[in-house]
Specification:
By secondary structure, the chain is α/β, with parallel strands linked by helices. It has a single domain, classed as Glycoside hydrolase/deacetylase (TIM Barrel, Alpha-Beta Barrel). 38% of the residues lie in helices and 18% in strands. The protein has eight helices and ten strands. The protein has helices at residues 22-25, 43-55, 81-101, 113-121, 123-136, 149-156, 190-203, 230-243, and strands at 3-10, 31-35, 59-63, 106-109, 141-145, 160-166, 205-207, 213-215, 220-223, 247-248. The strands form two sheets. The protein has a seven-stranded parallel β-barrel with strand order 1-2-3-4-5-6-9, surrounded by five helices. The chain has a two-stranded antiparallel sheet with strand order 7-8. Helix 1 (22-25) links the parallel strand 1 (3-10) and strand 2 (31-35). The longest helix is centred in the middle third of the chain and has 21 residues, at 81-101. The protein is globular. The mean pLDDT is 96.
Length: 256
Amino acid sequence: MPSVDLNSDLGEGFGTYRCGDDDAMLSIVTSANVACGLHAGDPEVMAKTFTIARERGVAVGAHPGFPDLWGFGRRRLPFSTGEIERLVAYQIGAAAALAAYAGHRITYVKTHGALGNIACEERDVADAVARATRAVDPSLGLLATALTELVAAGDAVGLDVYQEIYADRGYTETGQLIRRGLPGAMIEESEEAAARVLDMVQSGTVITAQGTRLPTAIHSICVHGDSSHAVATAQRIRERLDEAGITLKPFGPNAT
């Protein structure tokens, strides 16, 4: 029976600020990308998120981004590739430590926001992310947006690379995400998102905003945890995949 992973970006509150319904999402998804304290998250939020994920059998990964609490990591900041490499390594280390503290372990890395978007487009930044991941722990997988430079960079350094599609984001004709704020960037209706995800998984393609199909391996599906419709969308995707006979489980040999 075919299988696929369902992931979400979680642990993105900090201090008294809360973001999204992590408790509900951790009852639906099979993998959680946990913020590492720079674009969001803090030790308390991280430890709690990792603990709940362990209790529910959800795999976890580090979700590094730019140090940008004000912009939620979605602003493009002018760091050098060397600085990016060290920022990513730093955040993977924080995630590994807090996961271990909670009795869990991270098994992969997935970049967040603007850092992720740049790494998808620019090979030198993608290489920095891949090098940092391998340097900290070469057994970690790299969860990368399908058809992007991150996939090639991870392959080049010998990481296990897993390709993901987005349930709630639109795609350009080259397979990149449509930038937020532009028409077609966001898909907010849960049924529409679920039907589109099922089509992409069954056909093995990314479907662009213009309807073009770009063939790709698909190992995981992402639903952004900070949106108001995240829980409904994730639940409907899970239901549609189950109805189609597609099993949901974490990707990779090291998954929980």
